[in-house]
Amino acid sequence: MPSHPTEFASLVRLVRSYFVRDVVELRSTQFHPRLEVVALNGRLVLNGLSVNYSFGSLHRVFEAAFERLKLGDEKIETALVLGMGAGSVVELLSRLPRPPRAITAVEIDPVVVEIAKKHFHIDRQPGLEIVTADALEYVATAQATFDLAVVDLFIDAEIPPAFQTAEFLRAVRDRLNPGGLLVYNRMAHNEAARARAADFERLLAVSLGGAMSMRVEDNLVLVHRRPRPDSGPHD
């Protein structure tokens, strides 16, 4: 039994969420016309206007993608998450058999960071550094390198054009250590989105020298491994 009234109220809300959709907090920001924290099926999720940002369908997409990539077998000491949201990817990485010792999560919207701390307690994750910044500027100026970079940069259902260029992809690639993985999430929920995702897959492959793709639910997850010095360009 929770010892604090607030904890008890939260428990009651989560139990009710199996029967009633409960909006816990509703916000609007310069980046997101609608942000809602919802208690649903026993847990809190963060939604945008028409999509899930964290801990709902997006969580399932990355959970399945990481399993298929066998990330648990990778040696990932440091990870970069571009587009933190409420922290789905951060939580999944922290649950790996060998979790990264350090995770840098970049999120442009300070309100999202506030929500992630208030409702999802993201700041309790060990080894996490939250950077409130534009991901484009971060990868262009950062000096640190990582074993894994996860790109999940959406404004509702759309990825801003700046994150769909060869220049951005190469900038992210340059933040990877040799042998490091780039994992890029795109929506592919209808014919138009699938066509755009296919075009982007070709751009990624040409820009970085190789890519693989995985269809996960209504998303396309693209993966590139930065070659090691002793390997070929498509390792």
Task: Explain what the structure shows.
- The strands form two sheets. The protein has a seven-stranded mixed beta sheet, sandwiched between helices.
- Strand 6, helix 4 and strand 7 form a beta-alpha-beta unit.
- The longest helix is centred in the C-terminal third of the chain and has 18 residues, at about 190-210.
- Helix content is about 30%, strand content about 30%.
- The model has no long low-confidence stretch (mean pLDDT about 90).
- With about 240 residues, it is of the alpha/beta class.
Largest sheet: 7 strands, mixed
Instruction: Describe the global form.
Output: globular
Q: What's the gyration radius in Å?
A: 18 Å
Beta-strand proportion: 25-35%
What is the helix fraction of residues, given as a range?
A: 25-40%
Task: Name the structural class.
Answer: alpha/beta
Q: Overall mean pLDDT score?
A: 90
**Tally of extended strands?**
11
Q: Provide a count of the helices.
A: 7
Distance between the termini: 52 Å
Extract low-pLDDT stretches: none
Quick structural summary:
By secondary structure, this protein is α/β, with parallel strands linked by helices. 32% of the residues lie in helices and 28% in strands. The strands form two sheets. Strands 7-6-5-8-9-11-10 form a seven-stranded mixed β-sheet, sandwiched between helices. Strands 1-2-3-4 form a four-stranded antiparallel β-sheet, sandwiched between helices.
